[in-house]
Amino acid sequence: MLIELTDVRKAFNQGKPNEFWAIQGITTQFEVNRISCLKGASGSGKTTLMSMIGCLSRPTSGRIRLQDRTISSLPERFLTQVRRHTFGFIFQRFNLIPGLSVVENIMLPAYPLGLKASSLRSRAERLLEQFLLVDKASNPVEWLSGGEAQRVAICRALINDPQILIADEPTANLDSRLSREFMVLLDQLSKAGKTVLISSHDPVVFDSPVVDRVVELEDGLMVSGEG
Amino acid sequence: MMLNPAILALLMVSILVSTMLLVAATFAFRILRHWDIQSGSELQLRLERRTYLVSTLLVWAFLFEFLSLLLFIYNAEALSGQFVGAMCATGVLNLNPWGWPTLFLKITLFFVAAIWLLLNYLDNRGYDYPLIRFKYALLLMALPLVGAETILQWLHFTEMEPNLITSCCGTLFSADAQGVSAEVSGIAPANSILALAISGIVVIAAGVWVALRGQSGWLLSITGAAAFVIALVAIISSISLYIYEHPHHHCPFCILKQGHGYVGYFLYIPLFLATALSLGAGFVSPWRRITSLSQTVADVLPVISWLALFFFLQFYLTSAWSIWSSRLTMMEVWW
Amino acid sequence: MITLLRKQRYFIDYTLGTMMRHKGKSLGLLSVYTMIIFMLASVMLFSHAMRSEAVALLADSPEIVVQRIQAGRSVMVPADYLQRIGKLRGVTEKRGRLWGYYYDPAVKANYTVMASEQDQLTINDIVIGEGIGRTRGLSVGDYLTLRSHEGKAFSFRVSRLLESESELISSDLLLMNPQGYRQLFGIDESLYTDLVLSVRNPREIQKIAEKLTRLLPDSRPILRSEILRTYESLFSWRQGVMLILLLGSVLAFVIFAWDKASGLSAEERKEIGILKAVGWETGEVMRMKFWEGVIISLMAFLIGYLAAYLHVFYTSAGLFEPVLKGWSVLYPSFQLTPSVDGLQLATLFFFTVLPYTLATIVPVWRTSITDPDLVMR
Q1: Is the ipTM value over 0.95, yes or no?
Q2: Cβ contacts (< 8 Å) between B128 and chain A: which residues?
Q3: Which pTM does this prediction carry?
Q4: Which domains does chain C have, with CATH numbers?
Q5: Is there a domain that residue A14 lies in?
Q6: Total domains in the fold of chain A
Q7: Which helix (H) or strand (E) holds C348?
Q8: Which of B15, C6, C104, C128 could form a disulfide bond with C132, CB atoms 3.0-4.6 angstroms apart?
Q9: Facing B124 at nearest CB: one of A13, A59, A77
Q10: Residue A9: inside a domain, yes or no?
């Protein structure tokens, strides 16, 4: 067991008339070295849950444990430290920074670690090679096609060699061929030892044979997919 | 009222710093009342975010406070040309009853600020912010000091009249006068140098011990504070004599002048830094019993101690050098 | 420790890149910031230089000047006062001086005219400062005609031009033979403008001044140290007044900087969101922004101060010369002696960098606490 959630809840606008509980008590576990998919309509709480698991935000109540560590009560400063060594993120709209080159975008998550410039560089180059982007390395990211941008986003997620990959609606901006290719890439990463967590309402993703487990969310509650 | 740019800058800085501390203090109350690290409520998240703002504000406020101490002394030196009877900063500080208290408050604030910044550094490395209540309570105690400093400095500068006649170091720091400064000046140079040497050996021994063992920082604090006082006494009673090459000139400020190669800054800056770090060591080491801080304390305490020793050593070497290179020989005083 | 330094280097790299990508915004801020520093630094450098000039001017002057006061106005001193002073302990030299002003309608300016004995001028010779030489187009050997008190024209031959490191002192000076001086202005042999006393030991000056007022009850001794003090406070007071006037523009700049720092475009906000999402921490984003402030401040400070230095010492503070100087009009192209002072630099820093830093803390913090999961929503 890698990630353990115990009665996790998350509220927004607490104490105001528009108070809203996005997650209303979820208890589950996510296993190492599997590809799990959170499925549900938009507004079902997928993204909120993912962001709490990925240490991007803290639950209002409940407990999240990552391996043996309780992360749900860590302040942001330490949450971030845990996050950047453990998680790699792939976002829906790629979220690359325009104006920076491909390789600069990839190295971005590693800057706060203060690595030696040469080792950082060689890490980035290895990833570029692996994802067939070597000849684009110094291009600005605006020049990339959708598929290339997606691969750059994957490289960026992998630069700090995280154990867990989190992908939020990764195929929303890709056509079905690229989406299938993406799932193949995820499969390779999983085989290489990564744990993968995807949120999606795209059948190409949750019906894909590479996904080990599908968890379905509705209105902030789990409706199916007990591990 | 003297209207010169440095005075304007000092007044502006002190008002800004008090305002910043006032903002921080209102936040400190909220922290003391509502802080609950276990909670994930939006109030707690807001408080946590605000700590970034407040601690940044305070880092700057204390940095400016430190610079303003330097500017205050430098400015007092520069102003001495404008008053009858003033030869150096002493004369300017003597102009009205507010000069000396302002200086002493600024020095106290410097030490308080250094300790607070060290605690802040430490706290930000404990994953549950274990010192947060303590450090903001400490801040609330520092607030009156800052307020008092602002008011005293304001009085000091506004009550400065160009036609005031003042008395300078020759009268204040003289063995024949009365008061603490006179008694300090009257101490035999041989005794004060001996005390300086002993306190130096003790503080360095204590520092090495604390640095190697990684605990009992209070030892360094106490010896450091004692070494600080003895060092100031030694500067007034004997080191200054060697720098001025004059057997009766005891002023602690004239050594800041260009004519003496600004040697005073090389004495005071390391001494103050060393003392601040030693005091900090005492405030850092008790927290090694807290789980989330024990590693940080183990890492930081030796660094603080070595740094303190480095600056103390620099101070002692500079003093020894000024005595060594002086042409003043005090035969009849020594033997 | 090395990791920490490398981290800062990455932040600096990144922030430099960001500034280059938003050139317009950075340049706008930089130019306003530079302008503010330029103005403040010009005022400070200029008045500081003026003060140094005044101090240099007084350096060679005698320790005590004795004037005679009659009915509250200063009048000529009878020569026998020198005898009445007699021998005072500590006074190494005493003599009478003859000096005054001459208004030259041709250039609408006042010359400072002094009788000089050291130069051993003949009755027809004069020595003039460069300012006079320049405005009247005179060089050595030319003649300058002055109208005497009776309306007669006297012609004097220029035997030498005064050279001085500090032109402000000598620019309008005209030296002549004492005899010539008395004839030109119609001054009796038995009168001097004032008396000067040289005293070697500065500690005795006060005492000697007291004795003088007892010996010559209608005299007013003026001490050099007093003049120096007056100059000091006069110039720092002037600086203070100028600064208070300029404080308004500093305030305007602070509001401008606040506005620039808080008015982030959607694009910039998203950029910060991405940084937070990929693993930058609030403190690190603030650190990165802090370096941006340092770079901007450093550049503005360097450029602004350098420009002010050139402005004051190479173009003679052309922009506000008329406001600050207000001396005789004979100084169209004088050069100030360059001098830089640590106190001044520190003060300038407090007046510019500090307000800028304070103005950006809150906006920077607001930017930095952008939710890391913002980009997922």
Answers
A1: no
A2: 73-75
A3: 0.84
A4: 2-57+230-376 (no CATH), 63-223 (2.40.40.20)
A5: no
A6: 1
A7: helix C342-368
A8: C128
A9: A77
A10: no
